[in-house]
Structure formats: structure tokens, C-alpha cells
Amino acid sequence: MRFVMISMLVVLFASPCAAEPLTPVQQLTLDQTRDRFAAAMQERDYGILVEVIPPKLVNHIAASAGVTEAELHVALTQVLVQTMNDVTFTKMDMVTEGLEASSLEHDGEAYVWGFAPTYIEMIYAGQNFEVDEYTLVLLEAGVWYLIRTSEAEKIAMLRSIYPFFNDVVFP
Predict the structure, then answer these.
(1) What digits encode the pLDDT tens for the residues 94-124?
(2) N or C: which end of the chain has fewer CB within 10 A?
(3) How many domains does the chain have?
(4) Distance from C-alpha of 146 to C-alpha of 80, rounded to nearest angstrom
């Protein structure tokens, strides 16, 4: 019985954070980031799409590739141009209204994060495609970032950069 009580206390107090509604300012700035991202997708403004990647993630990828962050930004933009120019987005819906988010402090920095249901319809090579997934929304240093987490490699990379994600189950 004592073991069960101790285990319950550990789970209760060791969890890094509890989900709660965003503040009005957080909600407003997240919605603005989402809208800017959706407009960039429609307008094929691939430079903006690269800007929603957190700087720590960009730094990690650049260091791993042996390039500068500026060189990586150019390379990612070029890849997006090559791969996405033949894609037509017919619908993009990232639900951020009423988002429950977690907040914590790690290494002296405050973070807020949550998972926004995301639905995208697109046409490529004359075929319709639908993507129904979650986007990790991360507030870091006052800026919202949007991260697809449907690939195991990206989740592993996020966990190496942001260890507070180690115990998080990604949808």
C-alpha cells in the first residue's frame, strides 16, 4: 500500500506540467502565427514556412549537416520550392481555438506547448490527398513555432533538444 501511495505522489508531483487554457495574448499570437503559416502555404511563400521552425531545431539540423543556419534556411527553402510547387492546397485547418497547453520552465527558459489538430487537403499530380495529424505548437522566447511530429526521427530530434518532451506521448 505504501508503494502505491508513493508511486501516486511521484506521478502527481513529477509530471512536468499540467495542461490549461492559453492566456488571451498567447491565443491571439498563436492564431496570428497559424494564419500567417496558412497564408504562406497558399501563396507559396516558402521562406515564411521555414521561419516557423524553432531556432534550436534549426541550429541542431545545421550543426548536424555542417552548414550555417543561413545556408540551411536557403537549402530548406529551395527544397520546399522543388517539392511543393506542384502541390495545390485546397484546405488547411489547424485548430488552435480552445487549445489546452502545458507550460514549464527548463534551464531558465519558459515554454508553452500543446498539440493542435491539423487537417490539410491537397492536390498533387492530379490526385487528392488528405493529411489528418497534430501539429506541435511551441512558444519559446515569446514566439510561436509550428512543428510537424508525424515522423519518429523528428520526435527523437525534439527530445534531444528539449528533454522535457522525453516523457510526452506524441499523438
Answers:
(1) 999 989 999 999 988 999 999 999 999 999 9
(2) N
(3) 1
(4) 16
Q: Name the residue type at position 72.
A: L
C-alpha 3: how far from its chain's center?
37
Q: Kindly calculate the radius of gyration of the chain based on its CA atoms and give it in whole angstroms.
A: 18
Whole-structure pTM value: 0.84
Q: Which domain holds residue 72?
A: 20-162
Q: What is the DSSP letter of 99?
A: -
Smallest CA-to-CA distance from 147 within 41, 45, 29, 54 is with 54
Range name among 24-28, 74-78, 162-166 with the lowest pLDDT average: 74-78
Joined together, the cell numbers standing for residue 120 give 490539410
Helix (H) or strand (E) holding 140: strand 127-140
Q: Which residues pair with 132 in a beta bridge?
A: 119
In DSSP notation, 25-81 reads HHHHHHHHHHHHHHHHHHHT-HHHHHHTS-HHHHHHHHHHHT--HHHHHHHHHHHHH
